[in-house]
Amino acid sequence: MRYINFEGEPTISPDDFFMNEALNEAKQALAEDEIPIGAIVVCKGKIIGRGHNLTERLNDVSAHAEMQALTAAANYMGGKYLQDCTLYVTLEPCVMCAGASYWFQVARIVFGAYDQRMGFGRLNQKITHPKTEITGGIRENECAELVRNFFKSKRKS
Amino acid sequence: MRYINFEGEPTISPDDFFMNEALNEAKQALAEDEIPIGAIVVCKGKIIGRGHNLTERLNDVSAHAEMQALTAAANYMGGKYLQDCTLYVTLEPCVMCAGASYWFQVARIVFGAYDQRMGFGRLNQKITHPKTEITGGIRENECAELVRNFFKSKRKS
């Protein structure tokens, strides 16, 4: 699906649009010298949760962008589940975050860059909720480059 | 390994002893009408983190006992990793919690009851840290019975 734009501007798909918002969260992490990963949760076209990696600030290796965005969204909804919601995240979720998405019964996960080492997609069994649809590779290069450049700059310093 | 007790009292293994502490946390959850699952983190014989299931109170389906105990322990340590620590939990951890234990680099996971439906052990690939040792079935019956009775009473009411 693509939105029609009558102003002659480039059209953008909803997934591209929302991944851009997740990228903004990742850039916020970068500004705080965190690994630049960002996530948002969208329900019926509305952003109801945001988060970025906070492992350094919280000194908590489990404070991933997805965990922040999912709990923020669930809090906003005042309910337990996120059955009508899409999680957008700039990097393929790890096993912990994919496992969390199971409990929240997220309808859809859209991620940017693939993470072959730590991403949940390396598992040969499904660990997300049976109803969760997965889309990977949205704005993949921008998402990957943010993380790549971050680690490159860390190695130099 | 069993501690020697010179008083003629029944001896108790360290794993039994600490699982009893996790069971006390589970009973605390029960008193709060939460699914009775408890966890503690032990470092060199000292309990440095405690937690029990808080999914109802926090209205957060990811607020598992293990997540509470792990973050409490990491907070206490003031460091990121729990490489010398053992996580004791009354129920076999789910994929999310096992995934979290990876990031914390927990040395050992000891659990009570097996959870064939949601436990991470159902996966045919290792998702815990390569250095993490796993022991299951410690005080299995007591741990299982707590959860079983909880759901039985819920179905009646």
UniProtKB/TrEMBL annotation, chains A, B:
Its Enzyme Commission number(s) read: 3.5.4.33
| Gene3D superfamilies found in the cross-reference section | Cytidine Deaminase, domain 2
For the ligand (Zn(2+)), the binding residues are 64, 94, 97
Give the InterPro entries listed for this entry: CMP_dCMP_dom (IPR002125), Cytidine_deaminase-like (IPR016193), tRNA_aden_deaminase (IPR028883)
Q: Where is the active site?
A: 66 (proton donor)
Q: Where is the CMP/dCMP-type deaminase domain?
A: 13-123
Q: Which reaction does it catalyse?
A: adenosine(34) in tRNA + H2O + H(+) = inosine(34) in tRNA + NH4(+)
Tell me where on the tree of life, at the top rank, the source sits: Bacteria
**Which cofactor does the UniProt annotation name?**
Zn(2+)
Described purpose of this protein according to its UniProt entry: Catalyzes the deamination of adenosine to inosine at the wobble position 34 of tRNA(Arg2).
The Swiss-Prot or TrEMBL record describes its family as follows: Belongs to the cytidine and deoxycytidylate deaminase family.
This protein is called what?
tRNA-specific adenosine deaminase
Give the species: Mucilaginibacter roseus
